[in-house]
């Protein structure tokens, strides 16, 4: 088995376990629910295997849904951000992404923050909109999106800094 496949499989399992055993039980002030599992989708290597990436994102979201009994909202949100990721990468990283030379450990920290912010906000908005599924509760959806996104972004940045490989 390839070393990188084993590494990503282990990351997948650890993120799912951390999410369902620890983070799903955090509900601060009724609006803050951190979703660290999105970091797997955000930092997955960029390559030409787009269908595989979409399938892995779907399986990740579906796994979280199964453990959370949430009816597919995580799968829908995960596939959505996986689908729009190339557009956001091009917006945030420009020519580095165009030439296929992007490595997340070598990119500008500010661009990485913008990238995280955009995709996490989109993920959370889709997640909470599908979870609530009522236009009358749009203010609640926006509140939950805003507060949970801020906490998730901070958690993703800290995690990516702590576990980045030093070169």
TrEMBL record:
Keywords: Cell membrane, Cell shape, Membrane, Transmembrane, Transmembrane helix. The keyword Acetylation does not apply. InterPro entries: Cell_shape_determining_MreD. The keyword Transcription regulation does not apply. The chain crosses the membrane at residues 12-44, 51-67, 73-93, 113-133, 145-163. One of its GO terms (biological process) is regulation of cell shape. It is a multi-pass membrane protein. It is found in: Cell membrane. One of its GO terms (cellular component) is plasma membrane. Its main location: membrane. Belongs to the MreD family. This is Rod shape-determining protein MreD.
């Amino acid at each position: 088995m390839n070393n990188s496949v084993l590494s990503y499989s282990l990351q997948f399992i650890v993120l799912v376990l951390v999410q369902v055993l620890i983070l799903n039980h955090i509900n601060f002030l009724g609006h803050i629910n951190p979703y660290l599992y999105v970091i797997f989708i955000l930092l997955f290597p960029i390559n030409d295997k787009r269908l595989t990436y979409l399938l892995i994102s779907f399986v990740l979201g579906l796994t979280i849904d199964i453990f959370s009994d949430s009816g597919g909202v995580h799968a829908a949100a995960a596939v959505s951000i996986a689908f729009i990721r190339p557009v956001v990468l091009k917006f945030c990283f420009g020519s580095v992404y165009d030439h296929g030379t992007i490595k997340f450990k070598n990119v500008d920290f500010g661009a990485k923050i913008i990238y995280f912010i955009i995709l996490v906000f989109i993920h959370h908005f889709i997640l909470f909109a599908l979870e609530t599924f009522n236009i009358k509760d749009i203010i609640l959806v926006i509140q939950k999106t805003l507060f949970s996104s801020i906490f998730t972004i901070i958690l993703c940045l800290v995690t990516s800094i702590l576990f980045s490989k030093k070169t």
